Amino acid sequence: MLYAISDYLLDIAHNAVQAGAGLVELTIRDDNRQFEVKIHDTGCGMDSAEIERAKDPFANDRSKHPERSVGLGIPFLIQVLEQTGGSWQIDSRKGIGTTVDFAFMRDHVDTPPEGNLIDAIAQALSFDGDFEMVVHRVRGRRDLQRLHEPDECEYTVRRSELSRALGELQSAGSRALLRRYITSQEESLVDCEEDEKWQR
Amino acid sequence: MAKMTLDDLKKFRAEKKREMDMRDPEQKTVQIIVGMGTSGIAAGAKETLSAFVAELDERGLTNVAVRQTGSLGLDFAEPTVEVVMSDMPTVIYGRVDAAVARQIVQKHIIGKVLLEDHIYDRPAADIVDTQKR
């Protein structure tokens, strides 16, 4: 098991990058009821048999390690969500991409802690490779479909813009600045008013 | 902290770059590669990576590349970290928590001395054997 929600977020975001995606969209929304993450990628995608295998801890395509036959990222996530009243969904189409959605409920006693979200976001943005990543972050109850009007309860960062501003995202100097940047974005977030249109 | 803009980020970067260029150009060849597979993250690789970045930044070693990869294949010894630099053998360190990460910067990268208690792969077999005992 991973320790914190932020760790699951980073692990699943890494899957998206490793799927060879040109674009990874990471949406993170939390309020006092739940912590919700949506990771959409335009990577290789999976057919229904492959999705089933991804959920099986003792199945692995062995592409990463020829001698290892476990793959624990998705199975851990599903197990902890099912044990804590959370929800999840995996939608994938071969050759098109994958979307993994999950929501942790704050009121369950066994829900993992949030963990260090700033590091998780900064590190998700800094994986090696040639891909765009867009992180949408929303605080408070707000419909994810209505992310087009930026205000103080949300922010959006793009890997391409950060990469241009910093030159690269690998040196310790760039990483320290990126972390500072994400910290300042997080600290400036204001909890949104209840959005009447947000009904589950 | 006031909310930073991308322009602020560019400005800070330009300042840092000036500092960096005055320092040892050798830094550019130093690479720290942190295993960030599921088992690495479970063992705290996120904190390890942050500790490397903080220690390097505090010591002005801002040109050192810190990279993230999947599992390095030594899951029993996570978090695992590979250090690649000239004048030193390439080493995979294991059980690297935040404190060990800071020691790697101080001893391996700055002092050019191996941290023998945490070596898990690559250098001469006798060194690895010593620490298994």
List the helices and strands and how they pair.
The complex is a heterodimer of chains A (200) and B (133).
Chain A: H1 5-18, E1 23-30, E2 34-41, H2 48-55, H3 73-83, E3 87-93, E4 97-105, H4 117-124, E5 132-139, E6 154-158, H5 159-166, H6 172-187
Parallel strand pairs in A: 1-5
Antiparallel strand pairs in A: 1-2, 2-4, 3-4, 5-6
Chain B: H1 6-22, E1 31-35, H2 38-42, H3 45-58, E2 65-69, E3 81-84, E4 91-93, H4 98-110, E5 119-121, H5 125-132
Parallel strand pairs in B: 1-2
Antiparallel strand pairs in B: 1-3, 3-4, 4-5
Oligomeric state of the chains? heterodimer
CATH superfamily of chain B: Glutaredoxin
Number of strand segments of chain B: 5
Return the CATH topology of chain A: Heat Shock Protein 90
Report the CATH C-level class of chain B: Alpha Beta
Kindly name the structural category of chain A: alpha+beta
What form of chain B results from the Cα inertia axes?
A: globular
The CATH topology of chain B comes to: Glutaredoxin
Major beta sheet summary of chain B:
5 strands, mixed
Strand proportion of chain A: 15-25%
| CATH A-level architecture of chain A | 2-Layer Sandwich
H/E element string of chain A? HEEHHEEHEEHH
Shape of chain A: globular
Return residue spans of chain A where pLDDT drops below 50 for at least 5 consecutive residues. 196-200
Spatial strand sequence of the major β-sheet of chain A: 3-4-2-1-5-6
* Helix percent band of chain A: 25-40%
- Count the domains of chain A: 1
Number of strands of chain A: 6
Q: Strands of the biggest beta sheet of chain B: in what spatial order?
A: 2-1-3-4-5
Number of helices of chain B: 5
CATH-scheme architecture of chain B: 3-Layer(aba) Sandwich
